[in-house]
């Protein structure tokens, strides 16, 4: 895999598929590629440091055909009708086989006494159709996918390795420029590159996301004129635990807590809103109430959820609140909205291919239009997995048709010498681009 380079003394490696990101979308892409392909999977931080591990509430599934219309309508209603209807149909139709696959990898979901799946509900869902594993569904799913990838001999995992740029050759993606764990630069020639870089929360002072998720794929796409879509569609989650410490990552109080009965109160302990409104509308209502009450948070009361259910379903949220001094059995907790999810991203087709040949984007980094203007709760893990599998299948077909690596032109290594500055510039570029589109849309 390693061949010496004549280019500035920096190593030049070769791989069939370069996957950027070790969240559920990157891992599932790897698992669905043929075993004879060499795969290099890099991640900016540790292998488990990604938002997929943080997902609490669950993952949607079409329970049976009778729920299709309602599930479709709920997704569109949450997305303000701006969803790509074909993407939504693909996601819903594929949900069952994705869940079967996850169970095959050893993922367990809550079940009823008779062994059938136990479904919960979150805001803007008209039916219970969300599978969960306590309040750590993302960890349950992603840790099993990681274990399966680690067992694959054709996959090389490279933690603490950052994609600084892609190598563009004649309008085609030919690989990437990497900053390794040792601080050294290298290049990797790849027949296909998959951006699975997650969201943009690291660009915001208050976000539920890991700080290192800074929209790097967007910056790269901007530089190379790869099409972007809906980049001003940023979701703010209505309920994160309030903390006066701005350095802390905002801790999510999952929507399923409200789905199971938790209530929101103003400063006088009075309800002021329907807790199951779609996220954007509930966020607006909470912000309005905070302004009216002149408080930095509103109160959430978990006690309406029966005690046994509360502790069985949400043990980690309860433990986290306790660590911060709140006993949810006896008192309300302060909650405040924070940046949570990015509905826009690198524009992709139904096979997750971008506008640049040999470049794919999956998961939160990509925008196939499934979420429209606002994501319905628990559609994100599912969408990531459905469209990662489609990317892998498309790559499999195309790799058979084009078996050789694209040649590299000379790389301007000086451009990457000050990688910290380059990354800071990238963050600014992405923020500017998002604000520009936002300003255009509200003008
Ligand atoms: C607190 C929280 C709770 C959530 N709860 C739910 C839920 O209940 N249900 C649901 O459906 N969704 C939920 N979501 C959303 C969901 O978790 C994410 O949208 C989904 O996991 C995204 O997966 P991903 O693979 O696209 O990205 P991630 O899992 O975030 O992975 C991104 C990866 O890209 C890597 N990376 C980024 N930039 C670079 C670079 N330049 N070079 C190399 N590597 C890079 C990162 O290191 C990371 O490995 C939640 C999100 C959060 C934050």
Number of strands: 17
| Ends distance | 51 Å
Please indicate the count of domains.
2
Taken as a percent bin, the fraction of beta residues is 15-25%
What is the succession of H and E elements?
A: EEHEEHHEHEEEEHEEHEHEHHEEEEHH
Any idea what the CATH superfamily of the largest domain is called? FAD/NAD(P)-binding domain
Radius of gyration: 22 Å
Average pLDDT works out at 93
Given the C-alpha coordinates, what overall shape results? Answer: globular
Largest sheet entry: 8 strands, mixed
Contiguous helical run count: 11
SS class: alpha/beta
Question: The CATH topology of the largest domain is what?
Answer: FAD/NAD(P)-binding domain
Helix content: 25-40%
Question: Poorly predicted ranges (pLDDT <50, ≥5 residues)?
Answer: 1-6
Ligand identities? flavin-adenine dinucleotide
Assembly status: single chain
Name of the CATH architecture of the largest domain:
3-Layer(bba) Sandwich
CATH class bucket of the largest domain: Alpha Beta
Organism: Pseudoramibacter alactolyticus ATCC 23263
Cofactor: FAD
Catalytic activity: L-aspartate + O2 = iminosuccinate + H2O2
Pathway: Cofactor biosynthesis; NAD(+) biosynthesis; iminoaspartate from L-aspartate (oxidase route): step 1/1
Report on this model:
- The protein has 443 residues and is α/β, with parallel strands linked by helices.
- It has two domains: 5-233 and 343-442, FAD/NAD(P)-binding domain; 237-339, Succinate dehydrogenase/fumarate reductase flavoprotein, catalytic domain (Flavocytochrome C3, Chain A, domain 1, Alpha-Beta Complex).
- The protein has helices at 24-31, 68-78, 85-104, 137-150, 216-223, 255-259, 279-293, 307-313, 315-323, 380-401, 419-442, and strands spanning 2-3, 12-20, 39-42, 59-60, 130-131, 155-158, 162-169, 172-179, 185-195, 228-229, 234-241, 263-265, 298-301, 333-342, 345-347, 359-361, 366-367.
- Strands 1, 2, 3, 6, 7, 8, 9 and 16 form an eight-stranded mixed β-sheet that branches. A four-stranded antiparallel β-sheet has the order 11-14-13-12, with helices on one face.
- Helix 1 runs parallel beside helix 10 and helix 5 crosses helix 11.
- 49% of the residues are buried.
- Bound molecules: flavin-adenine dinucleotide.
- Its cofactor is FAD.
- Its EC number is 1.4.3.16.
- Keywords: FAD, Flavoprotein, Oxidoreductase, Pyridine nucleotide biosynthesis.
- It is an enzyme of class 1 (oxidoreductase).
- Pathway: Cofactor biosynthesis; NAD(+) biosynthesis; iminoaspartate from L-aspartate (oxidase route): step 1/1.
């Amino acid at each position: 895999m390693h061949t010496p380079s004549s280019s500035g003394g920096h190593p030049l490696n070769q791989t069939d598929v370069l996957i950027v990101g070790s969240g559920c979308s990157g891992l599932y892409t790897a698992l669905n590629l043929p075993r004879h392909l060499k795969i290099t999977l890099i991640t900016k931080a540790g292998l488990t440091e990604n938002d997929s591990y943080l997902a609490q509430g669950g993952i949607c599934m079409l329970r049976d055909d009778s729920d299709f219309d309602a599930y479709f309508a709920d997704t569109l209603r949450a997305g303000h009708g701006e969803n790509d209807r074909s993407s939504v149909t693909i996601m819903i139709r594929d949900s069952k086989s994705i869940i079967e696959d996850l169970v095959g990898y050893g993922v367990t979901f809550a079940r009823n006494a008779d062994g059938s799946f136990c479904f919960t509900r979150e805001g803007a869902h008209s039916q219970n159709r969300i599978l969960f594993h306590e309040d750590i569904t993302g960890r349950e799913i992603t840790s099993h996918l990681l274990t399966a990838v680690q067992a694959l001999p054709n996959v090389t995992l490279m933690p603490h390795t950052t994609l600084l740029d892609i190598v563009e050759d004649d309008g085609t993606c030919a690989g990437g420029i990497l900053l390794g764990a040792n601080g050294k630069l290298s290049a990797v020639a790849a027949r296909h590159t998959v951006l699975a870089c997650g969201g943009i929360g690291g660009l915001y002072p208050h976000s539920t996301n890991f700080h290192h998720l800074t929209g790097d794929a967007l910056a790269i796409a901007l530089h190379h004129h790869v099409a972007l879509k809906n980049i001003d569609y940023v979701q703010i989650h209505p309920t994160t635990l309030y903390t006066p410490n701005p350095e802390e990552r905002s801790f999510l109080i999952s929507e399923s807590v409200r789905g199971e009965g938790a209530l929101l109160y103003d400063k006088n302990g009075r309800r002021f809103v329907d807790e199951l409104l779609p996220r954007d509308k509930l966020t607006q209502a909470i912000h309005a109430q905070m302004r009216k009450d002149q408080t930095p948070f509103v109160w959430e009361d978990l006690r309406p959820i029966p005690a046994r259910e509360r502790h069985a379903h949400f043990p980690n949220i309860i433990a986290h609140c306790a660590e911060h001094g709140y006993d949810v059995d006896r008192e309300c907790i302060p909650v405040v909205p924070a940046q949570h999810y990015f509905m826009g991203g690198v524009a992709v087709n139904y096979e997750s291919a971008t506008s640049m040949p040999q470049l794919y984007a999956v998961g939160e980094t990509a925008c196939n239009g499934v979420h429209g203007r606002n994501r319905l709760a628990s559609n994100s893990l599912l969408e990531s997995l459905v469209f990662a599998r489609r990317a892998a299948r498309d790559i499999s077909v195309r790799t058979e048709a084009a078996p050789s690596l694209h040649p590299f032109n000379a790389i301007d290594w000086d451009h990457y010498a000050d990688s910290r500055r380059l990354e800071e510039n990238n963050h600014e570029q992405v923020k500017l681009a998002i604000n520009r589109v936002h300003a255009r849309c509200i003008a």
